[in-house]
Amino acid sequence: MSPSQLPLFTALTYFILSCLYDIFLHSLARFPGPLYHRASILPWAYLVFRGTLAFQVVELHNKYGPVVRLSPSHLGFSDPQAWKDVFGVTPGGENLKYRGLYRSMTSGVSDSFLAADTAQHRYMRGLVAPGFTARSIVAQEGQIMAYVDLLMYQLRNRSTNGSVMDVSQWFNWTTFDVICDLTLGDSLHCLENAETHMYLKFTHVFSEYSMKGAVLWHLGRNIAFTRSSNVSVCWETGENFRWHQSALGPQEVIGTANLFMVAGSDTTASSLTFFTYYMVTNTGYMSRLTDEIGSTFESDDQIDLDKTASLPYLNACIKEMQVDG
Ligand code: HEM
């Protein structure tokens, strides 16, 4: 072997030995999964980059059962109880968020409770919890309904000429405006302008690249996440921030506001999009739901949180969508 071939030979030997270790000696070696997933993280990383991991995971569970090895040190569970067992917040329990994914978005401090350690996480959850009670949500109903009304107005205005609309886009604008208003005290007027605000564009890019960044990080390249220069929107409007400001430092306020905007808007918009998709592709369910709503309300302005919460068919459809989606 020539000296120039030595690095390649060493790398190859290291790769093969680590694959053999992961297949036979790793502490997760007894869990089932395809050989190439058990041997290396590369197949998992490839699926994340292609955006097809979720589909592949379903197939793997169908083939290998409720627990499947997705990469050498990564297990997938199909039973929803696993989420509670591993990540559930229990009194005195640890915050087990995976550090490779949940990292600070600003300068390395625990700037949101995703990146916080267990004690700080518990403290910050306690601060924001009053904003998420049923009573609190009812108190914010008027504010939320203003955006729902604006959405309906915009959709009705645009649907009269028979044009095709991207509901996913409209739901994203709505949920983003609502969450931004609830979090910072003002929306960025996506619905009003029928336009994607720069922050929303950034959020999508951030979500995608933070995931890919985590994968690259995992693969050994020290690629950090997008940093604070991109969160200036919150900084500017942050003075409207409604939480107990004195209890949180500015970095934590910015970090937590960002977290709420990312965590609360896209998730809710995707759920609404799924819901709409399932309804329009299942006309039987759609007509039963339309009947229930039509026989309960005579006009739009009668629709409120309290009454919709007691519609059995609507709530059954939402629960079904959550399980399936
Ligand atoms: C249908 C809508 C939603 C879905 C499907 C959803 C889903 C999730 C999931 C799966 C997690 C756990 C993530 C993890 O720990 O890895 C999570 C956490 C979280 N979500 Fe949501 N979410 C939704 C709506 C919202 C809304 C409206 C908000 C806020 C306004 C929000 C704020 C959060 C926060 C702050 C966390 C972190 C909790 C913690 O670390 O203790 N989510 N969400």
Automatic annotation (TrEMBL):
The keyword Membrane applies. The chain crosses the membrane at residues 6-29. Gene3D superfamilies: Cytochrome P450 (1.10.630.10). It comes from the Eukaryota. Keywords: Heme, Iron, Membrane, Metal-binding, Monooxygenase, Oxidoreductase, Transmembrane, Transmembrane helix. Its cofactor is heme. InterPro entries: Cyt_P450, Cyt_P450_sf, Cytochrome_P450_monoxygenase. Pfam families: p450 (PF00067). GO terms for molecular function: heme binding; iron ion binding; monooxygenase activity; oxidoreductase activity, acting on paired donors, with incorporation or reduction of molecular oxygen. PANTHER family: CYTOCHROME P450 (PTHR24305), CYTOCHROME P450 MONOOXYGENASE ASQL-RELATED (PTHR24305:SF210). Belongs to the cytochrome P450 family. This is Cytochrome P450. It comes from Aspergillus nanangensis.
